[in-house]
Amino acid sequence: MIDAHVHFWNPADLGYFWLEPDSRLYRAYLPEDLDAERLAMGVDGAVFVQASHDPRENAWALALTEDCPWLLGVIGWVDLERPDLTERLKPLARHPRFCGLRHLVHAEPDERWLLRPSVGAGLEVLAEHGLIFDLVVRPEQFRHLPSVGRAHPQLSFVLNHLGQPTPEHLSQWARNLERLAQSPNVTAKISGLPEAVADRAVRIALETFGADRLMLGGDYPVCTLSAPYSATLRTLLETLGRLESGSIESGSIQSICSTNAQRIYGLEPPSQGVNA
To answer: Which of 221, 250, 261, 264 is the most exposed place for a label (fewest CB within 10 A)?
Structure first.
């Protein structure tokens, strides 16, 4: 199984503007902290996803992949509005495990940040380098994503956490998700879902995107605020299992939990039982 969405961080090494010192998450979370649970759950590959707007995080994360062969890919960060974005991306794009970028859009005060011309120009540079852009947004920003997907048809977008649906916005979220799914360059991760909407959100995502455009993510260590990593994955797998017995084709779970991530992120197949 490939977990398409894990974070590791160390506040002693890098800056995380959103991480408060009194938070339960304010400590180092490193690959060795996850080893026992991921192996018990059959996770033999994962994608590191940025958690910082500190440009040093890219090198920090790529160094982790040297010691952890099960870290198959890295989604990093570079300021999309930098005039020297191309020069910044060139060395990263050459690294075999560097997959693309993410920006913490959900932390931007500007609801229309993704629609800024300077951001759009940066997204085009990403496309020119064959890189991916992971999308993380808050509910009121989600309605802008269909326009963003259409505006950059050559860029592969990956929607994190299915766009963060909430009980109070579920109907509007579903309509926007259907609009977003009309752009074939957009895929999504089943990750970081509130328990109150998880079953409905996964079902709607399968109906709109189809199993071949979805990936599974545990969202470690953020998930531990609600449940242990193993319990989080188990719940997601049980949800998919119920749907596979009813509304989705047999074999879809294998695609969502492994092969889709390999194809979408361009990952090497994981080595079975890797524990380094």
So the answer is: 250
Domains of the chain: which residue ranges?
Answer: 2-265
Q: Which residues is 189 bridged to in the sheet? A: 215
pLDDT tens digits, one per residue of 168-182: 989 999 999 999 999
Give the DSSP H/E element, type plus range, for residue 99.
Answer: strand 98-103
**Closest alpha carbon to 158 in 150, 166, 149:** 149
Asked whether the whole model's pTM tops 0.90, one would answer yes
Asked if 105 and 135 count as a contact pair (C-beta separation under 8 A), the reply is yes
Under a CB-based contact definition with an 8 Å cutoff, are residues 160 and 189 in contact? yes
Number of H helices, E strands in the chain: 10, 8
What confidence tens digit (pLDDT) does each residue in 233-252 have? 999 999 998 886 665 666 78
Give the integer Cα–Cα distance in Å for 200 and 197. Answer: 6
CA-to-CA dists, residue 235 to 195, 217, 232, 239, 273, angstroms: 9, 12, 5, 6, 22
Please report where in the chains the tokens 């956490």 appear, as a residue.
Answer: 161
Tell me what pLDDT residue 276 has: 45
CB 45 within 8 A of CB 2: yes
Report which of residues 196 and 7 the model is more confident about.
Answer: 7
Three-state secondary structure string covering 6-40? ECCECCCCCCCCCCCCCCCCCCCECHHHHHHHHHH
For residue 132, give the nearest of 106, 155, 104, 159 by alpha carbon. Answer: 155
